[in-house]
Predict the structure.
Amino acid sequence: MNPIVPLTAVQLPLSKPRRRTREVKVGDIGIGGNNPIRVQSMITAETMNTEAAVAQIIQLYEAGCEIVRVTAPNLREAQNLGEIRKELQRRGYGHIPLVADVHHQGMDIALECTKHVDKVRINPGLFVFRKPDPNRVDYSPAEIQQELEAIEQAFLPVIKACKERGLAMRIGVNHGSLSERIKVMYGDSPVGMVESAMEYLKICEAHGFKNLVISLKASRVPIMLSANRLMVKRMDEEGMDYPLHLGVTEAGDGMYARIKSAIGIGTLLAEGIGDTIRVSLAEDPVNEIEVCYDILQALGLRKTKVEYIACPSCGRTKFDLPTVLNQVRDATKHLVGLDIAVMGCLHPDSPVMTREGLRPIREVRAGDLVLTDRGDFQPVLQTETHEFTGELVELRCAGMPPVQFTPNHPVLAIPKTEVDPLLKVPPASRGNQARAVPLAQRGEPAGGGASSAVLPDFACWYAADALAPGMVVLYPIVQGEQAVERLPEYPDVPVDEAFLTIAACYLRRGRWAARRARRSRSFSPSAQARSRWRGGCATRCKRTARLHARARNATRWRCCATPPSGRGACNACSGDAPRTNACPTGC
């Protein structure tokens, strides 16, 4: 027996494996390496409000947040991180990994933070702050070297403190806060973001510190995507394997913010890029956690809830599917790890992959092993069959195989009363009388024929059981394969898309005759409609299904299949008709 292989361990065609990175520990939580994609967030409570900050940290943790960030904008608030840590320990939550967020003039603040947290976040654009000069257009090599030395001088004590205490550091670049020098040298661009991060990375490596996580965030998704892809390329060139923290910063609130985050974060994760994520919402930060886990579950990276599969429903559904879905969800949402499908319909012959191969679903029994979307075989726990009590409607149209629908399935069609004027165009020998048809009354363009622009004016949606012989079905549209511009008998009528649609989809009963009366296809009458067919038929080739217009006597708008003798029986009324005339009974 083959071993069961979960989907997360299978490399799907054209997908990319997760990028290999080193493991970086933040407290007891590992980022990168073989660890799952980690979920983190940031509190919005003021750091000096110890009670509120602690309550929000615990709330985030219990919602599933694995790493919590707290801002430290000044030295006093950095010192209060110690009080927050003590209160967490007193309440039994001292194990929650904490990250201090450091921005302006960060050396003294960062050094204080290293005493109380598990990771320090540094913003390269603000750590050594220089007041922007709007007239500055260039930096000399000496000025560049001077600034790099100033960065190293301020940064080195923080590196040493992190090494001594076994802490992690995130070099977190923001598109909106690049330093003036970086913007002058590389532009306000993804390239500038990568170069800003690389300057700090190289300083860390020069001093033997590699417990690093990198982030490049932007409020615009394309910039965020480009910056992270460039960062991966640059790290690969430099032989670096640091894990990446993903996020679309300042995403806003509501549905759009969630979509932005899902596209930005999800796209990179699907490319194998990313080791920890944060969804930035201008809302209660607890709302961010569910979005993070939904992104991971949608990509099959982490499964933390029941996976519900439900169709959008259509005319084939005979019950209130949204209500049933909610009832099923309420009753089963505690069964984490299961996949539960609520479907409107499933054909009994729909194939299911079993150990023995494909089998119709109606043959599957409880206990049989079937292939799941995770790539393994699991036993069927229960089977239920729901009988369809109505009758299926079989639709038989010229030019397409019979299809079956439930009675209320919508079909786009033209009623027979509107089709007849289109078909009963007199021959060219009758002169301009051909233009005296209702088409002109329906807005037909001057000089046009049976224009396709006219058809939608009287096309309607019908339930399948409301269709009747003589109607023209527009959906699905079946057309001839050979381009024919004119019929010999009717040179004024263009053979355009509208004409071919009618010719191919004319709903009829009886026999379909080709030229010289050789039968190309037969249609048996339906029990639903025994009435005589009225209207016209278009001769089509059996082999190529294209409209014939090669000879004047090859095609006629008539209801009779004419044998070579010149006279034949009408399929609808059994009347006798000469070769060139209509049926004498007038059917």
In short: Confidence is low (pLDDT under 50) at residues 1-9, 425-456, 475-484, 500-587. The longest strand covers residues 168-174. Residues 480 and 546 are 4 Å apart (CA to CA).
